[in-house]
Amino acid sequence: MALKSGCRVMNNLVHLLLLSVLGIVFGAKPALSGQIVQYLPGFDGELPFKLETGYINVDESELFYYFIESEGDPQGDPLFLWLTGGPGCTAFSGLIYEVGPMEYDVETYTGGLPKLRYYPYGWTKSASMIFLDSPVGTGFSYARTLEGWASSDMKSVEQAYQFLRKWLVEHPQYLAVQLYIAGDSYAGKIVPLITKKIMDGNKDKAEQFLNVKGYLVGSPRTDLLTEENSKVELFHRLALISDEIYENLKKSCNDSYVTVDPSNTQCLAALQDLKKCVKDLSTRDFLEPNCELSSNDLADVLDRRSVTEGSLDSEFLLPPMSMAAISYCTAFSITHNKIWANDESVQEALHVRKETVRHWERCNNSLLYTKDIKNVVPVHKELSGLDLEVLVESGDHDIAVPYIGTLKWIKSLNLSVVDGWRPWHVDNQVAGYTTKYSEKGYHLTFATVKGAGHPAPEFYRRECFYLFDRWIKHKTI
After folding, report:
1. CA-to-CA distance for 4 and 76, rounded, in angstroms?
2. Are 290 and 282 in contact (CB under 8 A)?
3. For the chain, which residues make up each domain, given as ranges?
4. CA dihedral (245, 248, 252, 257) positive or negative
5. Is 128 a catalytic residue?
6. Strand-strand pairing, 79-83 and 179-184
7. Within a 10 A sphere around the Cβ of 161, how many other Cβ atoms?
């Protein structure tokens, strides 16, 4: 397997060399879709990393991307395609909040265009990363026809796959490096399917060989039924519901809480008891404030300059928030505020095509999108027979996609445990717990991030960098 892969990579390099020679002889130059961005509004000085943005045409869609070249060894470090969940949440969220080398300066924010600053623990220290706005309608990606706006799980997979192939044609220097597919939340369904498409394509000699090495999913939506049912067990483990409520739920609902028979009044009553206990908690991280608003966006409240404790009208926030809560929610709402990305100077700097997206949203909830895949566990099972490196990480305080459900589908793959459950550390402190599974050439590492919510890097960004960096360099986590 390794020998064949090596031969194919060598053949790719020879092919690219011939194309380059022909280009010199005949003066041919490929039409590149991306452009380098050296300066961004809100960032002081020139960007300390190579940022490229652009569009790749796929079918009737124009998919927008941010590409950041590895700050380490671009020729030797792997290439990652990164997708954010939703569906409909921009990959810019991953860049600015999770794994990229930039962040907002939220501590000094007083209004106007938010400030950006360099973040020293971006995953681009160890990898080149393509942040893709997918599916169409996400971020700055758009369709050229009315029919092109419609998308689905399967269409999203196919378009991301075609995007990657076309992007690599324009960036042939990355064909030889190891390729990984990555994403979190709802993208947990899309990532393994793209990986399978690549592996299937590699078997077809008519397709350009892609040097895929593995995939990474964080807080991944995988099997809706298992994950939703596992929430009750998580609530009990985290002391959010009592022993009595938990036992009553198990008994009356028979461990099935998603689809309930309307005639099962005992189960319905037990679910109401559960709802009373958890309805006001944040599903992102129950330890943090619930930033859901009753009406206007948090930015509208802040713009009223009413940011003093007790001065906010109850019609805007339910329940009234403390200053600490306002500070926390502001940190995660700047892109929701639509300030930075909707600024004309920002869009010009990013080379966004004018009048293609009326109003940028961090998460577009009005997509024409069909969720036509309910369970991708069989896809993981099929991939487990191949030579792949896999990392699955979860915040242990994530209610949206509980780590309990994630572990259940991992165990259903029937892989051998090669490294038992143990803590992993950052700065000599426990940062989470990990275990490793293996079956021939397939290696799956699962890790929790202690105290993290959904998704984990938004809460413990530095710790998640160390987890990623050790994994990608094949070091002990």
Report:
1. 20
2. yes
3. 35-224+373-472
4. positive
5. no
6. parallel
7. 22
pLDDT 10s digit of each residue in the chain, 477 long? 444 444 444 444 444 433 333 333 223 344 567 999 999 999 999 999 999 999 999 999 999 999 999 999 999 999 999 999 999 999 999 999 999 999 998 888 878 899 999 999 999 999 999 999 999 999 999 999 999 999 999 999 999 999 999 999 999 999 999 999 999 999 999 999 999 999 999 987 767 899 999 999 999 999 999 999 999 999 999 999 999 999 999 999 998 998 888 999 999 999 999 999 999 888 888 888 887 743 344 444 444 433 333 333 333 333 444 555 556 676 666 654 678 999 999 999 999 999 999 899 899 988 999 999 999 999 999 999 999 999 999 999 999 999 999 999 999 999 999 999 999 999 999 999 999 999 999 999 999 999 999 999 999 999 999 999 999 999 999
Structure tokens at 411: 């165990």
Phi, psi of 227 (to 5 degrees): -70, -40
Of the candidates 77, 133, 285, 398, the residue annotated as catalytic is 398
Catalytic residue among 128, 185, 219, 282: 185
CATH H-level superfamily of 35-224+373-472 = Alpha/Beta hydrolase fold, catalytic domain (3.40.50.1820)
Please tell me whether the peptide bond between 135 and the residue prior to it is cis, using omega within 30 degrees of 0: yes
Longest Cα–Cα distance in the chain: 79
Taking alpha carbons only, the member of 335, 330, 310 closest to residue 320 is 310
398 catalytic? Reply is yes
Judged by DSSP in three states, 62 sits in strand
Length of the chain equals 477
| pTM for this predicted structure | 0.86
Token pair listed for 332: 């995660």
